[in-house]
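Lecture notes, part 5. Sequence design as translation. It can be helpful to think of inverse folding as translation between two languages: the language of shapes and the language of residues. The source text, in structure tokens, appears below.
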């Protein structure tokens, strides 16, 4: 049987899993005044301070224009700030504010709780294998 048989296409299984998870995550994040994209942006900016708007767009899977609107709203909410890019005067770098770091820290336990509930039937080996596969797919595509 080929890869598009009864088990389905992996790409669409991953997409379906994400869409299913996203609604549950959105509910958990709503209690912290964050959207899924805002939470993802805070995570990315904490991991890689100084990302540009284009970088944020690539990481959260949106256009540069949408990323700019996302960052503008987050900036108004005091979660991030823009700073001049010393390497390129045409761009700005995005950094977490103290309030953004606090909001991320406050929301993360809710996300972990959702993930723990979704992975409850996984063995430690299952969990490790799934995370390793997902990380590998990200690096294989980003190359």
């Amino acid at each position: 049987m080929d890869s598009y048989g009864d088990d389905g296409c992996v790409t669409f299984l991953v997409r379906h899993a994400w869409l299913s998870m996203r609604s549950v995550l959105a509910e958990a994040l709503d209690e912290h005044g964050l959207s899924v994209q805002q939470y993802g942006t805070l995570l990315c900016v904490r991991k890689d301070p100084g990302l540009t708007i284009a970088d944020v767009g690539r990481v959260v899977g949106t256009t540069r224009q949408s990323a700019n609107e996302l960052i503008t709203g987050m900036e108004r909410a005091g979660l991030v700030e823009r700073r001049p890019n010393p390497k390129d005067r045409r761009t700005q770098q995005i950094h977490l504010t103290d309030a953004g770091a606090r909001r991320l820290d406050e929301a993360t336990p809710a996300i972990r709780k959702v993930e723990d509930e979704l992975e409850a039937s996984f063995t430690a080996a299952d969990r490790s294998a799934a995370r390793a596969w997902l990380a590998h797919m990200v690096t294989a595509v980003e190359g």
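The translated text above is only one of many valid answers, since several sequences can fold into similar shapes. The mean pLDDT is 90.
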